[in-house]
Amino acid sequence: MSPLEHSEPTAAPETVRRAVQRDYERFAVSGLPEPLEQYLLDEYDLDMTAEYAGFTLKNPWGKASGQLSMTARQVEEDVAAGLSFVVLKTVIAQDEHGEQSMAAWAIPEARMVAEPIVGQSGEHGWTITWKGRGWWQSFEAYLQLIRDARRIADGTGTLIVPSCKYHLPSPSEPDWRRGEYDYTTRRLLEAWQPGGNPMPLEKDFSPTLAGSDRSAVQAKILEWLRVVPKLMRESARTSGLGEVCVGLKMFNALFDDGFQVEMLNAIHNAGADRPDFFVYANRLFDPQREFDGQRGVAFGGPDLSDRNLRVLDQWRTHSAGASALPWSATGNITTGRMAVEYLCRGATSFQLHTFFQLPADQYAMKVGNRTQRALHELHFHPQTGLIVWLHHLANESGRSGRPIRLLDIATNPMR
Ligand SMILES: Cc1cc2nc3c(=O)[nH]c(=O)nc-3n(C[C@H](O)[C@H](O)[C@H](O)COP(=O)(O)O)c2cc1C
């Protein structure tokens, strides 16, 4: 069930559609106007103010954690392009002796390709296939990346967000390696200084329990979701260096949609141990598919967004109005229209990876860096861009007030 029942933004006023067509063509040559948010407010009555982890953002667009946020240079380009947040590549936690229980994730990327993919619905999209996983350079190099990124972003309105994969016990493992939580959190907080606000921190999960029996696995995953925020907060407190704003990046487990809903319920019903926010939801996993001699690869594309939106609908229908945590959307956001699908389900920001990594011929804009070219498509595409779809949505739902505020839509989502 989609809140956007039409495949074309037919309810957007003709004047808006004409202006968007004009801007799409001229900005493809001249580059985007700066600041873009002011232009969108003045020309299109759109208030792009957004939120991530309770922080107010100038717009909803962010870089999701991955290969595109591993260097100061990449961060620099994203800050220049006007992204409102950048989630750094996931670092693998370690204890004070340098031990990493999740060391299997710290492998270098061997080869990475952006490939077309067709979803089960027949819809065409893109996926990135590769072999690597988490940060494979030294922990010190990651801490330096945090410091560099913070310095580059200082005063620009771009929020920098570290990401970490901490120890997660398997069903046969009774103990949590708290040494990894304590040491890694303390060092991340040190690199974050001077702090001010709490440090936003995304916890990356991975479905790593192949071989264990199904119910044991499910019970363990739910335990992870309940325990991790508490451990992260306790580690921050004992460090004496400040607080962390804990975000759980939810993953698509190898179970049915019902279990995804259970996962969402688990984080919402954890009382004082709820995370501060969550990200929904990381890529799908195909245990059979092979790439470069490795069996089992993650993938995205239309099946990912189809599943995410379906699960979010089910969860919202069954959650009986439990007060929802703030959340940021990820998963096949390659158009403004798709961003609006997540917005209508309550997302207050959008984090993308794949769409920032397509071949150059997939973007109409021929100037600027790849992030700017992507933002041009996301906003100004005459059929799929955010501007026409926000106007379409406002008219369809009888929102006559202007400006059209993104956050109003997120906080009063349509069923
Ligand atoms: C090459 C690649 C590397 C990624 N690395 C990470 C990572 O280190 N940590 C993480 O939380 N997510 C990682 N992701 C997931 C992305 O952050 C993103 O959530 C996911 O790909 C869905 O968004 P998309 O469809 O826009 O790509 C990675 C994705 C790709 C394609």
Report on the architecture of this protein.
The protein is α/β, with parallel strands linked by helices. It has a single domain, classed as Alpha-Beta Barrel (TIM Barrel), CATH 3.20.20.70. Helices cover 38% and strands 19% of the residues. The strands form 5 sheets. An 8-stranded parallel β-barrel has the order 4-5-8-9-10-11-14-15, surrounded by 5 helices. Helix 5 packs across helix 6 (214-239). The longest helix is centred in the middle third of the chain and has 26 residues, at 214-239. It is globular and about 60 Å long. Flavin mononucleotide binds next to strand 5 and strand 7.
Explain briefly what this protein structure is.
With 415 residues, the chain is α/β, with parallel strands linked by helices. It has helices at residues 14-30, 36-44, 72-81, 139-153, 178-192, 214-239, 257-268, 302-318, 336-343, 370-380, 386-396, 406-411, and strands at 46-47, 50-52, 55-57, 61-63, 85-92, 112-118, 124-130, 159-165, 199-204, 244-249, 277-280, 284-291, 294-299, 327-330, 350-352, 404-405. Flavin mononucleotide (FMN) is lined by residues 64-67, 89-90, 112, 128, 130, 134, 163, 204, 249, 282-283, 300, 304, 330-333, 352-355.
